[in-house]
């Protein structure tokens, strides 16, 4: 199994994302795995890097400084140089994940997402916090199989999914609304800050394409693979100890990577 994690032009979470896949492979006892960080220019020069991959990960960051809109310039670099190869990858039984800036890039590359945008947070500034998201029980996302609720970190200034009502209706009908922000009681955030940290339409935190193989999400699962990365880990540890429950090693972010690797095993 080969996993390619993109880098270059301001993407800056490639090492954490690659580590998450490797740590996941150790947890699952999978040995036949190669995780490689590859600069986008190297894939343009040698497209076989993409053709030979089973999973493509576009990590977070601030590609091109978000100067022409978050993810826009990087998406154009792919469109102008690798469009055929990217479309071929999409058509095959392979997986793609776009995280934060990678999500902003993906929505400009996936045809069924082309009529929506990710815009500035309603609150008017960058948000870095832990949030809860509920998984659409009707979603066919490979990445989210068997999951119902996740506790993950977010870190973005342009994370608000925005679209016309008819586009939203299409996404709802196709069950592409993969993750939605919820409050601490498991209820949808109803646009209430900080549960919905950006004012995202329909509480959207992630989209899945119709095939279920592509996931574009604003939260950072790679920053939440260990229990001790959580902002509330010390409190939750004490709760577990008092209840006689084993303190977990891994966080919810690991579950997303597990589903991806299990798909090929």
From TrEMBL:
Pfam family for this entry, one: GATase_5
PANTHER family tied to this protein: PHOSPHORIBOSYLFORMYLGLYCINAMIDINE SYNTHASE (PTHR10099:SF1)
GO molecular function: ATP binding; hydrolase activity; phosphoribosylformylglycinamidine synthase activity
Keywords carried by this UniProt record: ATP-binding, Cytoplasm, Glutamine amidotransferase, Hydrolase, Ligase, Nucleotide-binding, Purine biosynthesis
Keyword flag Acetylation: no
Keyword Transmembrane helix: no
GO annotation terms (biological process): 'de novo' IMP biosynthetic process
Gene3D superfamilies per record: 3.40.50.880
GO-annotated cellular components: cytoplasm
Protein name, UniProt field: Phosphoribosylformylglycinamidine synthase subunit PurQ
InterPro entries, A to Z: Class_I_gatase-like (IPR029062), PRibForGlyAmidine_synth_PurQ (IPR010075)
Organism, as annotated: Wolbachia pipientis
